[in-house]
Request: fold
Amino acid sequence: MEKTKNVPHTEEKKWYELFSNKARVLYPHSDPAHDYLHIQRVVSTAKNLCMAEHGDWNIVMPAAFFHDYINVPKGDPRRPYASQLSAEAAIEYLKSVGYPEKYFEGIRHAIEAHSYSANIKPQTLEAKIVQDADRLDSLGAIGIARCFATSTLMSRPFYAEEDPWAESRNLDDKSFGIDHFYQKIFKLVDHLNTETAKKEGEHRVAFIKTYLDQIKREI
Reply:
């Protein structure tokens, strides 16, 4: 496998293991949509995007590990500020472990810009990669699992009993799980930044649509 930009393999491995161990503590399994496994997937996807798009792994790796450092629950009024809170907390942690300060500005922006709720446009390639990696995890088979896991945490039924497909009502993803695909998830693919992510995103959206067609048969 090609080595990432400007990072000797041994140095990269040291930071990766340190960040991975920290992430295991930060992200509990009580929220399967935002647990350590989510972080693992985002980091893995971010690395693939980083290699394909020639981004700087020195920035992308810590930003991917710590993009949800402060996890604010959905519906909390602080939700739009979660990425900024996470960026501040992540930088403080990186300072404490001696990570090179020259990467802090890029890491901070990548974490702040990853959030859909924050509505901050990514200005760097690395921020685009982290945002894409996080959004891809909301698509495809894993995206379906995460959506219904969140539905359970929110005590939200999978669909509206009388009108599952919102044919005569407004979409309401605060009340019904399936609505979330139409209200938000399908829109994500149009906001992916890199060509590599766009191609993968289209594939994952097609899978979700096939899955929803099967649900229509069953209910």
About this structure: Residues 140-218 form a domain with the Methane Monooxygenase Hydroxylase; Chain G, domain 1 fold (CATH 1.20.58.1910).
